[in-house]
Each structure stands twice: as C-alpha cells, then as structure tokens.
C-alpha cells in the first residue's frame, strides 16, 4: 500500500493538484527506504529525502504532515509521536488495532490541535460515489437489506505486505479488521450507523507457524449479521482462504427495487432493477450521474485529476482508479485550508468498532451492540492486543 501512496503523490504532483509537496520517505529498513525513494523519483522526476526513523522525520522543519503506511499494530505508536511533534497525520486504514489505540490517537491530535485522518479509499472510488448518490436519492426506496461478500486468494507475496499479515499481534484480524474495515466504513457511509452485530470467525487453513502451508496464521474467514439504526439488515462474508480465483459482490434491496454489483471494490458489472421498469446496467447509471453532477459537487467528491475519467473500472494497482489519489488530495487540502478531512478520527474509530464488535461477538457467542465496543465496555477480544507483547 505504501507504493500506491507514493504513486498517488507523484500523480498528483505531475498534475499540479497537490496543495503540498512530498518531502521525504522513511522506513526502518534502509533497503526499503531506498526502494521507496526510487519509486517516487521515477514517477515524480525528483528524489525525496530518505530517513530510517520517524524521530528524524519529525525533527525536520520541512515536514508538516506524516502519512503512515505501516502494520496496524504501529499506527497508534507512530501517530502519537508525529502528532506530539506538531505534525498532521494521515493513517492507513484501519485507524487502530483496538478502540483504545484509536482513542489515544484522537486524544493526542486534539491536544495538539492537529489533523488526524484515515486513508479509506473505498468510499472514494468513483462508482461508489455514484452508489452513495443513488441510495441518497431514494433510487431503491427505503433500504431493507444489504449483502456483501469478498472471497480472496490472498498471499503476502501478492499483497506486497510481507509476513506481518500472518501475525495477529501486528494485524489483529486479516479478514475482519484489515479487510472488513473497508466495508464497515462504506456501509456507515451508505446506510448510517450499525447498532448490533452477530459474528463468527474461522480458520480453515493453518499457516506455517501452526504447522500448515497457508499464508496466514490468524483466522481466514469471518461472517456477520448486522442491524442498522435505520432498521435495515445486513450480512457480510470475508474469506481469505479462497480457491479457484477471487469473487466479490454487493446486493442492496429496498422498497422500490435492488442494486447489484459483481465486484466488491467498486460498483461494477451490476444492475439497477426497479419495480415496473427494465433493468439498467450500473455503468449506464454511473455515466448519467457523472454527466449530471454539478461542478461544485464534482470538485468536492471527485476533484479533477485525482481519478481516471476515461476508465471507471477499479484497478487496485492504479492510485487514480482505486480512490488513493483522492484520499491523499483530501488530506493535503484539509491541512492546507484548515477544514476537517472527509474521514477523520471519529469515522475511523466507528468503522473499527464495527469490525471489533464482530470479533467480540464471535468470542462471546452472542449478538453485540457496537456501542458497547465503542465505549470500551466490551473489550475481551482486544485485551491481549492492548497489553505488551509476551516474551
């Protein structure tokens, strides 16, 4: 993901759209730090400074903000260092590994009057912007239910993340935190608050640490039933032990009809089916929405140059087609003009709370109120992650 951020900054800089300038890259591993610098230089045409520690970064007066793309375990540790040094911070999703971690970051940001934003890209994918508009316009009427699934044949090599994805201490839960937080944020964005969840997790293929050959040690599957404050129901399935290729999709059903997508990351290869009308391809609906979108709304939702207007299909490796450049632009602009970011600490914490509620529910073997997790009243699953690592 760090490489995607680098390419996103380079794309924005080439287009003259970034109200800031990438000054430096940093990594504890000098080799990776050098690789990151070369990636940015090859695409932006200039070399950044290179550091191997955050302390050196925040000691440099040229640095006003820090973008953290590190294992989830380190989000709160590094964010607090940067915020305490007076730097604004963008944190890759999920905001934190536990609710306590999220709260600590938010408190330090408030104490020092600094912006804390979450790099959540799914809501910023152009087709998901259109999906949000369709639901807000009442296209399918009162939402009754939403069903979402993603099945991934994921390995650390494919993700580029390395072995930390296998480590519960570093990732928390690959399916129900690292991945499901995308959906938690998007579902809140589309339908409002989730009040209650009933979750289950499972491990089908053991990782090498447990004597198996699969890529991950933590659970590789999770499912949940959701109840929204508006009365809608939801179901979510995330599986990272997929075989035969990946699969994903979303179905939204309401009083007037349904919306379908055959891709998880964007509203693609889908249909809008309304009572008494012939089905409309999602691509047609998205195109019509973009054509009718007022300039002020377009500039706010999809600033020109932050997305590929010629191709709306998601490409997870292209920052202009995966919402990455849009999230980076939002953070830089928020800091530059002093407005709140689109996805701030509260949004980030609430998305994490939904995911953790699913994990707490699986452990408790009962439905769990998201508010009980958000408030800290229920933290049994999180407790070990809030303590120092044994050994």
What is the topology?
Blueprint: H1 2-14, E1 24-26, H2 30-44, E2 49-51, H3 54-58, E3 65-68, H4 75-84, E4 88-92, H5 99-112, E5 116-119, H6 126-136, E6 143-151, H7 156-159, H8 168-171, H9 174-191, E7 194-202, E8 221-228, E9 233-239, E10 247-254, E11 257-261, E12 271-274, E13 280-281, H10 282-292, H11 295-301, H12 324-337, H13 345-364, E14 368-369, H14 370-374
Parallel strand pairs: 1-2, 3-4, 4-5, 6-9
Antiparallel strand pairs: 6-10, 7-8, 7-14, 8-9, 10-11, 11-12, 12-13
What does it look like?
With 391 residues, the protein is of the alpha/beta class. It folds into 2 domains: 121 residues, Rossmann fold (3-Layer(aba) Sandwich); 190 residues, Dihydrodipicolinate Reductase, domain 2, CATH 3.30.360.10. It is built from 14 helices and 14 strands. The strands form 3 sheets. A 9-stranded mixed sheet has the order 13-12-11-10-6-9-8-7-14. A 3-stranded parallel sheet has the order 3-4-5, with helices on both faces. The protein is globular, with a radius of gyration of 20 Å. It starts with a helix and ends in a 17-residue tail after the last helix.
Overview features:
single chain, 391 residues, alpha/beta, Rossmann fold, Dihydrodipicolinate Reductase, domain 2, 2 domains, 14 helices, 14 strands, 19% strand
Brief overview:
The chain is of the alpha/beta class. The chain has helices at residues 2-14, 30-44, 54-58, 75-84, 99-112, 126-136, 156-159, 168-171, 174-191, 282-292, 295-301, 324-337, 345-364, 370-374; strands at 24-26, 49-51, 65-68, 88-92, 116-119, 143-151, 194-202, 221-228, 233-239, 247-254, 257-261, 271-274, 280-281, 368-369.
């Amino acid at each position: 993901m760090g490489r995607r951020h680098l390419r996103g900054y380079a794309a924005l800089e080439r287009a003259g759209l970034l109200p800031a300038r990438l000054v430096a890259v940093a990594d504890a591993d000098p080799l990776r730090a050098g690789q990151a610098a070369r990636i940015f230089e090859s695409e932006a045409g200039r070399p950044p400074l290179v550091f191997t520690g955050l302390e050196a970064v925040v000691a440099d007066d040229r640095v006003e903000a820090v973008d953290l793309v590190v294992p989830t375990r380190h989000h709160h540790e590094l964010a607090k260092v940067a915020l305490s040094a007076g730097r604004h911070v963008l944190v890759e999703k999920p905001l934190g590994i536990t609710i306590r971690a999220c709260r600590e970051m938010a408190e330090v940001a408030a104490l020092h009057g600094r912006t804390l934003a979450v790099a959540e890209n799914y809501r910023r994918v152009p087709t998901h912007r259109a999906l949000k508009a369709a639901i807000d316009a009442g296209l399918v009427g009162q939402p009754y239910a939403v069903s979402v699934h993603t099945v991934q044949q994921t390995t650390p090599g494919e993700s580029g993340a390395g072995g930390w994805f296998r480590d519960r201490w570093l990732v928390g839960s690959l399916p129900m935190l690292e991945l499901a937080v995308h959906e938690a944020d998007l579902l809140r964005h589309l339908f409002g608050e989730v009040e209650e969840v009933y979750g289950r997790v499972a491990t089908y293929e053991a990782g090498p640490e447990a004597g198996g050959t699969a890529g991950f040690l933590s659970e590789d599957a999770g499912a949940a039933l959701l109840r929204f404050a508006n009365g809608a129901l939801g179901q979510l399935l995330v599986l990272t032990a997929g075989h035969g290729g990946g699969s994903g999709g979303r179905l939204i059903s309401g009083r007037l009809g349904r919306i379908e997508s055959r891709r998880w990351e964007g509203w693609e290869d889908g249909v809008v089916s309304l009572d008494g009308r012939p089905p409309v391809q999602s691509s047609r609906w998205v195109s019509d929405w973009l054509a009718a979108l007022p300039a002020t709304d377009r500039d706010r939702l999809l600033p020109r140059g932050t997305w590929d207007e010629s191709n709306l299909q998601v490409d997870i490796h292209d920052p202009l087609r995966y919402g990455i450049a849009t999230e980076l632009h939002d953070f830089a602009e928020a800091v530059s003009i002093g407005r709140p970011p689109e996805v701030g600490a509260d949004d980030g914490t609430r998305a994490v709370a939904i995911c953790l509620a699913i994990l707490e529910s699986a452990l408790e073997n009962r439905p769990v109120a998201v508010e009980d997790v958000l408030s800290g009243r229920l933290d049994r699953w999180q407790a070990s992650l809030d303590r120092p690592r044994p050994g």
